[in-house]
Amino acid sequence: MEKPNVENVGTSAKKLSAIDPDDFEVDEGFGYRILNFLAVFFVISQAVMCKKCKSVVTFTESGKRGLGFKIVISCQKCDKIYIPSSPFIEKGYEINRKIILAMRLLGVGLNGIIKFCAFMDLPRPIFQSFYDQIVQKIAVGAEAVCQLSIKNVAREEKEKSDEKVTNTSGITISGDGL
């Protein structure tokens, strides 16, 4: 973790920067991490064995779709176990939707996502058709939130106007005649 320059920040930030983040073990049951599959799962396979038959366990991947995949746990005597790397929603992994949303919020489109994944040595994330479907769903969701927000603001303004003027109902407006 890079340590920020705390000279130009407040007292609370200076106190917090004095705490070593390695002193705290965080149990986060939800979240994503980027890891090197081969390096991590090779070490895990050296440390664990099959619960049922006590044989050697290996880890591979299958069912790749963009950034999502299935982790395959295999041993010599038992059936393989498949674990999705992220929740599978309809026809795709949630991680693919999340990267599209995050990059769109940053102002980056599909080509930027592809470049990011290439620079990070990640698989190609998604194809144009899936990207377009997700962007359309984001637009529908954003429109719904926008309309709800407009209705709430209008209701609040009407309530405030009704409090100030008791003989009218609705919002009072004024104009300059143009």
Write a brief structural summary.
Keywords: Membrane, Transmembrane, Transmembrane helix. This protein is an alpha+beta fold and 178 residues long. The protein contains five helices and five strands.
The H-and-E topology, N to C, reads as HHEEEEEHHH
Which percent range describes the beta-strand content?
Answer: 5-15%
Count of folded domains: 2
| Count of strand segments | 5
- Overall geometry comes to elongated
User: How many DSSP helices?
Assistant: 5
Q: What structural class results from the helix and strand content?
A: alpha+beta
Radius of gyration: 26 Å
**Which bin fits the share of residues in helices?**
40-55%
Ranges with pLDDT <50 over ≥5 residues? none
- In round numbers, the mean pLDDT is 83
The major beta sheet can be summarized as:
3 strands, antiparallel
Transmembrane segments: 30-49
Domain Mutator-like transposase: 32-177
Region (Disordered): 159-178
Protein name: Mutator-like transposase domain-containing protein
Molecular structure report:
Helix content is 43%, strand content 14%. It has 178 residues and is an alpha+beta fold. The protein folds into two domains: 34-85, no CATH class; 89-165, no CATH class. The chain has a three-stranded antiparallel beta sheet with strand order 1-2-3. It has a two-stranded antiparallel ribbon with strand order 4-5. α3 (94-105) packs across α5. Residues 159-178 are annotated as: Disordered. The chain crosses the membrane at residues 30-49. This is Mutator-like transposase domain-containing protein. InterPro entries: Mutator_transp_dom.
